[in-house]
Amino acid sequence: MPAQKRRSRVLRNLNAKVASVPMILTAVVVFVGGTVWTIVYSFTDSKLLPRLHFVGLEQYARLWVTPRWLVAIKNLAIYGALSLTFSLVIGFLLAALMDQKIRFENTFRTIFLYPFALSFIVTGLVWQWILNPTFGIQSVVRSLGWTSFTFDPLYNSDIVIYGILIAGLWQGTGLVMCLLLAGLRGIDEDIWKAARLDGIPVWKTYLFIVIPMMRPVFITTLVIITSGIVRVYDLVVAQTSGGPGISSEVPAKYVYDYMFLAQNLGQGFAASTMMLITVIIVIVPWAYLQFGRARRG
Amino acid sequence: MAGSFVGKLISPFSRAARAERTARQASERAQLRQTARKAGVPSVSVRDLSLSFGSVSALEHLDLDVADGEFLVLLGPSGCGKSTLLNCIAGLIDVTDGQILINGWNVTWEQPKDRNIGMVFQSYALYPQMTVRRNLSFGLRSARVPADEIKKRIARTAEILQIEPLLDRKPSQLSGGQRQRVAIGRALVRDVDVFLFDEPLSNLDAKLRSELRVEIKRLHQKLGNTMVYVTHDQIEAMTLADRIAVMKSGRIQQLGAPHEIYSRPINRFVAGFIGSPQMNFLSGELESGPPPALRAGELRIPLDRYAFDERGAAGGHCVLGVRPESVAIGADAAARPFSREVEIEIVEPMGAERLRSGAGLAVRRGDRRPPVMASGTDVSPPGGSLPATARPARTG
Amino acid sequence: MADPPSLEAAASRLPAVSRQLAGPRGPKPRPALSRRNAFLYGTLIVLALYYLLPLYVMVVTSLKGMPEIRLGNIFSPPVEITFEPWVKAWSTVCTGLNCDGLSRGFWNSVRITVPSVVLSIAIASVNGYALANWRFKGANIFFTILIVGSFVPYQVMIYPIVIILREIGLYGSLWGLVLVHSIFGMPILTLLFRNYFTSIPEELFRAARVDGAGFWGIYFKIMMPMSLPIFVVAVIIQTTGIWNDFLFGVIYTKPDLYPMTVQLNNIVNSTQGVKEYNVNMAATILTGVVPLFVYFASGKLFVRGIAAGAVKG
C-alpha cells in the first residue's frame, strides 16, 4: 500500500514537474552546486586547471597581501558607499521633481532613463572620451580661460574611482528614480493635504513624513543598487581597463584576470568567494529583517 | 508705528518674536470670531464661487452662508461637486472665480494653514510613523508655537476627545473610532473655528459608521464649532445636520433643514434623492377640476387636499410624487377617496417594515412600479392618501 | 492676515443686491514664472543636460573628421559633417585578426540574442506557470534557491559553468552562450511570470481543468494568449540585458563569435597607434542602437519591466 501511494504521489503533477526540470537543475546544479564547488576549490592550489590539492587558507592569505586585491577592495568600498548615497539622493531628487505634476513628464523620464538601456561598455567608453584630458572637459574648460583647471580622473590614480563613479551614476540613477517615483506615487494624497493644512513646510513633509512612509521602497532599491555595485566589471574594463596601473581595479576584474588571464584559478576562486561573502554580509541582515518580520508579524 | 514695523522687519525670526506673533495671531482670531458672531456674520461664506478645469465646469456660481456654530451637510451623488466645494473652502484647490470668507474675512487668496480651519479626511491621513502626540504637535512645532503652549493645547484636546491614554501610541495601534478622534484632535489643537469633514465615515462598515456618527454629533454639541460635513449618505445627513445643502452637477439644489428638505423638496431631483426607499413618481396632466386632479391615462387622482403653491392648479404636464409611507394598503386603502387595485409583484421584508412593489399605477408601459411601505396583509389595492409631497413639474 | 476684518463683516450685512464683491476674488494672481516653477524646471533642465551630454558628444564626435577633432573641443558641433567614421566602424575596423568592422559583432549579437531571448522566455514562462498553478511539493524551495542565487555574484559560478559546458561540448560555441543566458535569465523571468500568472483568476484555471484540459493544453490555449503584455515586457528585459552583456560574451565564446560589446571594447581599448576617436564614437553608437531602439519603442512597458525587476526585492 505505502509503496503504491509513494509512486502515485511522484507521478501526480508529472507534467509540471517535468516542465520545471530546467529550474530545478539550474537551482541545484548551477547555483548551489557551482557555488559550493568554487568555495571548495578556493582551498586548493589550482593553476591552469582545477586540481584537488588542498592548501588550506593559503590562497586567502596571498589574496590579502596582494596590492592589487587591496586596491580593488578599497575601490569597491569607496565606489559602493558613494554610489549608494548619490544614487539615492539624486534618484530621490529626480523622483520628487517628477512627482510635481509637471508638463513634459514623459520627455523628462525618457531622458533620465535612457542611459539605463545602454551597455556598461558603451557608458564606459563615452565617459572615457568625455573625461579625456586632451580633448574632453579639461581642455574645454581650459580653453574658456581657466588654464590651470585640471580634471583628468582617468590619469590620476587618486581620483580615478570618481571618474568611474560619474559614469556609473549617469547610468544607474534613472532606475532609482523610477523605483522611488513609484513609491512616491503610492503615498495617499490625503497625507499631503493634511500636512498642507497643518502648515507643515514642503521640505519637512518630505523629510519627516513621506520618506519614513517609503521605507520599504527604499530598502528594496538599496538591495537592488547594492547587488549591482558588487558586480561592477564592464564599466571599469571599458573606461579605464583597471588603470592607470592598478588604481581602478575592482574585485570582479581581479577574479576574471586571475582565472582566465593569469592562469591562477585558485586565486580567482578565493577572490570570488570573498565577493560572495561581501554580498552575504549585506543581504543576510536585510533578509532577516524582511522575512523575520513577516514570520513574527 | 514705523518703529514696530522696522522692528518686525529686522527680527522676524527670533524666538521671542515668533512666540509673540503666534500669541498675537491666536488672540486676533479669537477676537475676530467674537466680532463676527456678535455681528451675525456667517462663519463660512461662499460667494459666486465657480470652479472649472479647462472646459469642464465643476462648480457654478455657488452662494452659501454657514451660520456660526451650525452643522451644515453637503449632500449629493458622486461627482456633484461637494468634495470639491469643501476643498475650495479649505484652500486646497484654487477657485476660478468668486470668494470665500471665514468669519467675514476674505480668505480667497490665503493658504490653507492661514484660514483657521481644520479638516478630517476620508482616510484620516494620520502620519503613520509618528505617535499620536507627535501627530498633534507636528504642525504646531512647524508654526513655531512655544513648547509649553503646545503641551497645554495637547492636554486640553486630549481631555476633550478622551484620547489621553492613546497619546503614545502609533496610528496603526488605534481603532477606527480612535483614529477619527485623533484626526479631529489635529484640527482642535490648532484652535480652529471651522471644522471640515470629507466623508469620514465612507470607508467604514455599517455598525462602526453609526457609532462614530453619534460621536461626531456629540462632539459638535460639546464644542459648538461650525462644522461643514460632506457625505453621499442621506442618513448621515439627516441625523447630523442643522441644515442640508443638496448638490447636483456643481450647483446647490436646495438648502434647508432636514425636515424641510424631506417634506418640501424643491425639485424632482431632491425629491427623488432624499428618502429611502425612493419616492414614487407619476406623470400626467393636471386638471383644474373642481376638484383638481391628476389624470394619468385612465386614472384620475384627486388632489383636493393638496397644498398648491402660487401657480395654483393650472393645467399642464406635471409629475406627482408620493412617498411610500403615504401609500395606504389593504382595508385602510378601501376607505380612502382614491384607490386602485395593484398587483403585488415583490415583497421585501425588512424587519419592522415590508416593501411591496406592484405595477398597478403604471399608465404607460415602462413606468416605474411604486414600492409601497406598510405592514399588514398581502394582496390589496393601494390607496392614494394625501401624498406628503407632490411636485408639479411643468413641461412644455 | 491681510484685510481688516471689520470692513468685510460690515459689507456682508448689506442686502445681497448691493453687495459688491469687494476684495480678492478668483484665483490668486501668480507670476507665470513663479519661484517654485523656476526652481522645478530649472533643476530638471540642468539635470537633463547631465544625462543628454554624453549622447550629444557621441553623435557630434562621430560626425566629425579627425583633423577637426584634434583642433576643436568635444562640445562643438561639426563644421563639416561626414559619415565616413560610421562606414569605417561598420565595415573596415580591425579587431584581432579580422578587419571587417563591427558588422561581424552585430550579427554575432543578433545570433546570440534571438535564440537566448526565445529560449529563456520559453523556459521561464513555463516554470512560472507551473509554480503559479500547479504547486507541487518542493517547488517553492527550488524557487527560493533560484531567487537567492540571483543575488550571488556571477563570478562565483563562472568556472563551474565552464567545466559543465566543456563536458557537454558546448564551450566556446554559440549554443553554449545561449544556454548560459537562459540559465541566468531564469530567476527574474520566472518571478515575473509567476507573479503574473498568480494574478490571473483561479476560476479560469479550474474551469479549464474541469473541461478536461491538461498542463500543456491550458498553457497554450489559455495562459499564453492572455499574457501577451508580460511576454512583451520579458522580451524587452531580455533583449536589452543580453545584447548589452559583456562578461558572458567574453568568457564563453571564441573571438570570431564575440558579441558587439566585446568587439567594441577591443576596437577602442586595444588598438595600437593612432586612435580614431570619431570611429570609436561611431562604433559606440552603433552598439547602443539596438537597445536604445527597444527602449524608445517600448515606452511605458520598459518602465513596467523595471518595476517587475524591482519586485525581486
The span between the termini of chain A is 42 Å
Largest two-chain interface: A-C, 96 and 87 residues
Oligomeric nature of the chains: heterotrimer
Strand content of chain C: under 5%
The assigned structural class of chain C equals mainly alpha
Please estimate the helix content of chain A: over 70%
Number of strands of chain C: 0
CATH topology of chain A: MetI-like fold
Overall pLDDT metric of chain C: 82
* Count of individual helical segments of chain C: 15
Helix content of chain C: over 70%
Number of domains of chain A: 1
Q: For the record, what is the CATH homologous superfamily label of the domain at 113-259 and 297-310 in chain C?
A: MetI-like
The secondary-structure element order of chain C is HHHHHHHHHHHHHHH
Q: What portion of residues of chain A belong to β-strands?
A: under 5%
The low-pLDDT segments of chain C are 1-8, 11-20
Brief rundown of the structure:
The complex is a heterotrimer of chains A (297), B (396) and C (313). In chain B, the strands form five sheets. In chain B, strands 6-7-8-3-9-10 form a six-stranded mixed β-sheet, with helices on both faces. A four-stranded antiparallel β-sheet of chain B has the order 2-1-4-5, covered by helices on one side.
Write the layout of secondary structure elements.
The complex is a heterotrimer of chains A (297), B (396) and C (313).
Chain A: H1 2-11, H2 14-19, H3 21-41, H4 58-63, H5 67-98, H6 105-113, H7 120-130, H8 137-143, H9 160-185, H10 189-197, H11 202-213, H12 215-230, H13 234-239, H14 251-261, H15 265-296
Chain B: H1 2-10, H2 15-39, E1 44-53, E2 56-66, E3 71-75, H3 82-90, E4 97-102, E5 105-106, E6 117-120, H4 132-142, H5 147-161, H6 176-188, E7 194-198, H7 206-223, E8 226-231, H8 234-240, E9 243-248, E10 251-256, H9 258-263, H10 268-273, E11 280-287, E12 293-296, E13 299-302, E14 316-322, E15 327-329, H11 331-334, E16 344-349, E17 354-358, E18 371-374, E19 382-384
Parallel strand pairs in B: 3-8, 3-9, 6-7, 7-8
Antiparallel strand pairs in B: 1-2, 1-4, 4-5, 9-10, 11-12, 11-14, 12-13, 15-19, 16-17, 17-18
Chain C: H1 5-11, H2 35-62, H3 66-71, H4 84-91, H5 102-133, H6 139-151, H7 155-167, H8 174-199, H9 202-210, H10 215-226, H11 228-243, H12 247-252, H13 260-270, H14 277-298, H15 300-310
